[in-house]
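Sequence, please.
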């Protein structure tokens, strides 16, 4: 016999879930895996372009940290924007890499696993470096470039756990590129372009070199077309779904920014 109380309690929950899925549909992941083609494809387009834009904005300043700190003292808005865009683009690479690794792993689990894992760990290291960059710039604001440079120099070689991931930053892109080529996720030219990302300098308060621009151009050439291809695949969301998801996403991001600044 059905329990009337249980039936009454379950029905509204099921109805609410059905309504939410209808109002804000989420496509099944399929072969792209987590986080799906929409998040992954968007990240493939935006991530490399943001990093390249940030690198270009700081390209006219010398590479090493004393010059980067001095540049921030003279041009704080420009340098904060450059480093912020670069960090945001690096952050957006994780869903892009997750989807690429999933597509590789569907054909060769080993290449997908190791390529994706190494690159992901390397991105964590870059996030750590971005945090140190931000702190150093705040020292410039409060104390000036000279004392900030002295502080960075005093702690530049200090041990931290993320230093163990420096090799992952370099090797991960090579492994991922080889996996993409061997499994035909990318053709040989775009796979080689992806592998060029390994040449992107790593560490704290690093500026832009010609090699940085070559590496980021390769990243753009490899991921941006793949991202656009994913976003263009059928089925496409309805106009109604887009008009619901876009404002919700923008409001959510805005609230996250405000709450982050508050605490």
């Amino acid at each position: 016999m059905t329990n009337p109380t249980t039936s009454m309690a379950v029905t509204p929950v099921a109805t609410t879930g059905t309504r939410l899925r209808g109002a804000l549909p989420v496509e099944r992941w399929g072969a792209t895996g987590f986080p799906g083609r929409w998040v992954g494809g968007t990240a493939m387009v935006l991530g490399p372009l943001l990093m390249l834009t940030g690198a270009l904005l700081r390209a006219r300043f010398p590479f090493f940290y004393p010059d980067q700190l001095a540049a921030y003292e003279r041009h704080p808005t420009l340098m904060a924007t450059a480093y912020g865009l670069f960090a945001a683009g690096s952050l957006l690479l994780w869903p892009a890499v997750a989807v690429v690794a999933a597509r590789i792993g569907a054909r060769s689990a080993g290449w997908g696993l190791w390529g994706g894992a190494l690159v992901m760990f390397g991105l964590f290291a870059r996030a750590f470096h971005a945090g140190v960059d931000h702190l150093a710039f705040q020292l410039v604001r409060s104390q000036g470039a000279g004392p900030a440079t002295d502080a960075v120099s005093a702690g530049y070689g200090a041990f931290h756990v993320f230093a163990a991931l420096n090799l992952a930053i370099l090797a991960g892109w090579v492994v991922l590129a080889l996996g993409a080529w061997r499994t035909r996720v990318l053709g040989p030219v775009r796979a080689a372009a992806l592998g060029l990302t390994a040449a992107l300098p790593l560490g704290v308060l690093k500026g832009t070199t010609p090699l940085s621009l070559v590496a980021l151009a390769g990243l753009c050439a490899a991921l941006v077309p793949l991202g656009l291809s994913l976003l263009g695949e059928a089925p496409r969301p309805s106009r109604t779904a887009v008009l619901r998801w876009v404002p919700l996403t923008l409001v959510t991001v805005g609230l996250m920014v405000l709450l982050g600044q508050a605490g």
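The first helix runs from residue 4 to 23.
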